[in-house]
Amino acid sequence: MRAYDIILKKRNGGKLTKEEIEFMVNGYVKGEIPDYQMSAFLMAIYFRHMDTEERAIFTEVMANSGDKVDLSSIPGIKIDKHSTGGVGDKTTLVVGPIVASLGVPVAKMSGRALGHTGGTIDKLESIPGFRTSLTEEEFFENVRKIGIAVVGQTANLVPADKKIYALRDATATVDEVSLIAASIMSKKLAGGADGYVLDVKVGSGAFMKTIEQATELAEAMVGIAKSHGKKAVAVLTNMDVPLGKMVGNSLEVLEAIETLKGNGPEDFTQLCITLSAWMCHLAEKGTYEECVQLAKNALESGKAFEKFREFVKYQGGNPEVVDKPKEILPMTDKIVEFTAPEDGYITAIDTEKIGIASNYLGAGRKTKEDTIDYSVGIEIIKKLGDYVKKGEPIAKMYVSEKSDTETARKLLLESYKFSPEKPEHKPIILGIVK
């Protein structure tokens, strides 16, 4: 078998066999296939795409390229949640405690921030003492004892994806549905869960800018899951505005705690209940409608709030953070207001630029080696559809000495659009793919 022949076959629109896909992926991981041939192979997929069967095989081969997590020793149906990345997306911090309090085990591996989107691991690490590196024994023990553990991804989890993604990033082959879906779902399959709830973001702050693109990706991921005997549902969610009000690590933990107390923003609370309900439904806790009520009850009764306290304590964090977050979380006291440049309704927010502005303040990374400042970020005071007067505060920047406040302010200025006409309301939940 030769890489040349496989590249030619896909370039000409042919369907690849399992053996051919294994030859390319495994050969590349071992260093037997050079970058230039793998680049050509990826470009052929970019233009010719993969069908459902090819996607499933490609995903499985990548998932089998390194370590796999075996969750079979943990009782119950394990349901994982994945977000395709957004601005202000701190859902794991609320959804995890909700479903764990309802008897659904949460054994989750999460990522760090890169680009304009935040990372769950960075948010959790803003809690003093919180450990996201647990031994396998500690990870399993926490899930068995309290129903929840969240850790960073292991170094040898899906090495094929790490190597291939770096090449895609350098060869303009990132945004192809089969490659995106296989990248995401290979990590999910290696993570060992029985099913997945996929939060697919749509809009200016998402990687998928249109509902058509997001639906195509959602269908591809759900299809891959089902082809491997896994349960899956995708929730298409609005990312034309930041989720909730807070963007930045400690700020988002603060908002998650307030939401667990029942004081969260309406859009964020609704999304958390929706995702929790689908997770519980896939875990066979009842119909979707029954699970919505279970999730609401977990919030209203304080069960989810207490589960978050337990979760923080068991992973080494200071449990007093749930009662005194503003005192314990690293938060700057230097605040710069951003005011409306004109009168009018807010008709558009370029959410990606909000995420980038937060990075310029120090809340994110430009490269994997960058250090995050947990104390900084942005609070969105006014959102889409709100009427504002010129000079009225519409956002607050939480800044430090190292923040590039001026660049962040310019990005905020570019982000907001105003009009005398009130825009049409867009719901947080845009669709479901099953």
Automatic annotation (TrEMBL):
InterPro entries, A to Z: Glycosyl_Trfase_fam3, Glycosyl_Trfase_fam3_N_dom, Glycosyl_Trfase_fam3_N_dom_sf, Nuc_phospho_transferase, PYNP-like_C_sf, PYNP_C, Pyrmidine_PPas_bac/euk, Pyrmidine_PPase_CS
Keywords: Glycosyltransferase, Metal-binding, Transferase
Reaction equations catalysed: thymidine + phosphate = 2-deoxy-alpha-D-ribose 1-phosphate + thymine; uridine + phosphate = alpha-D-ribose 1-phosphate + uracil; 2'-deoxyuridine + phosphate = 2-deoxy-alpha-D-ribose 1-phosphate + uracil
Enzyme nomenclature, EC number: 2.4.2.2
Pfam family for this entry, one: Glycos_trans_3N
GO cellular component: cytosol
Cofactor requirement: K(+)
One GO process term, biological-process aspect: pyrimidine nucleoside metabolic process
UniProt keyword annotation of Metal-binding present: yes
Domain of life the protein comes from: Bacteria
SMART domains: PYNP_C
Ranges for domain Pyrimidine nucleoside phosphorylase C-terminal: 345-419
Record-level Gene Ontology MF annotations: 1,4-alpha-oligoglucan phosphorylase activity; metal ion binding; thymidine phosphorylase activity
Family membership: Belongs to the thymidine/pyrimidine-nucleoside phosphorylase family.
Entry function: Catalyzes phosphorolysis of the pyrimidine nucleosides uridine, thymidine and 2'-deoxyuridine with the formation of the corresponding pyrimidine base and ribose-1-phosphate.
PANTHER family hit by this protein: THYMIDINE PHOSPHORYLASE (PTHR10515)
Subunit structure of this chain's protein: Homodimer.
This protein's name: Pyrimidine-nucleoside phosphorylase
